[in-house]
Amino acid sequence: MRTNRSIRIWISIFLIALILLSTIWLLSMRDQDNQTPFNSTGDAYVQTRLKMVADTIEARGVDDPAVLEAMKTVPRHEFVPQEYIENAYDDNPLPIGYGQTISQPYIVAWMTELLELQPGDRVLEIGTGSGYQAAVLAELGTVQVYSIEIVPELAEQAANKLEGLGYSQVVTKQGDGYYGWVEYAPYDAIIVTAAPDHLPAPLAAQLSEGGRLVIPIGPPGFWQTLWKFEYVEGELKAFNLGDVAFVPFTGEGVEQGSEMPLPSP
To answer: For residue 123, which of 58, 193, 197, 62 has the smallest C-alpha distance?
Structure first.
């Protein structure tokens, strides 16, 4: 009798364990069914982002593998206001408040490619904005990024967003980007994401030998010209890259700064 009772106890334990294991397995399968098939990281926009890169960035001529990989990786939807999240991967600028915008993806990729970044380069970004361009630069993984934003609220938001997404290597500050960031100069590359009506002399002065500066220049409210400058053997060489449209550069620096004549292309 005692043996039969022991057998029944072990059978009961086995059945309970089997039921628990079955329940765990069913819950696991249900969770897998609820996941997006192409997504293993919780990012539901992976396929949308890959399509954006293929259709609007590669198709328009950007072919630097590192830049393309960064554009495929950085979650642009994390950098736009909630009301525009469904448009995050359209190839358009979007408002981010305070009269500023997040640049269209193609422009971000193109300007990044124009910087011709090499491992170990030091990059200065003028106009952190949402933090998206800084994240793309940081995603390259081989450069040090410094970024300045004049709007205090955007500077704080961008710093928090970059930190939260793991881009802690981006050094940010709030200030007038017209004067650059002398503390970390000279820079191998400078990228400006708002349009002054002239080339800020302090930025040109903070370029290293062989350094590249990509900047839109032109009057506010109109089309501007995208320029690429290269500092070669003590001279600044200029390359006109065509019409673009950016928000205006703001602050006392651009209002009071003396105009630096553009070098001949």
So the answer is: 193
- Give the tokens for residue 132: 């998206």
**Contact status, residue 68 vs residue 57, Cβ threshold 8 Å:** yes
DSSP strand pairing (100-102 vs 224-232): unpaired
Alpha-carbon distance of 112 to 125, in angstroms, equals 11
State how far the Cα of 29 lies from the Cα of 18, in Å rounded to an integer.
17
**How many whole angstroms separate alpha carbon 184 and alpha carbon 224?**
29
| The two three-digit tokens of residue 242, written as one number | 């065509």
- pLDDT over 50 (residue 111): yes
Q: What's the pLDDT tens digit per position in 147-189? A: 999 999 999 999 999 999 999 889 999 999 999 999 999 999 9
CA distances from 151 to 72, 132, 158, 194, 239 (A): 28, 16, 11, 13, 30
Catalytic residues: 103
DSSP state of 85: G
pLDDT of res. 222? 76
Distance, CA of 255 to CA of 249 (rounded, Å): 9
CA angle 161, 162, 167 (to 5 degrees): 150
The answer to whether 171 and 147 have CB atoms below 8 angstroms apart is: yes
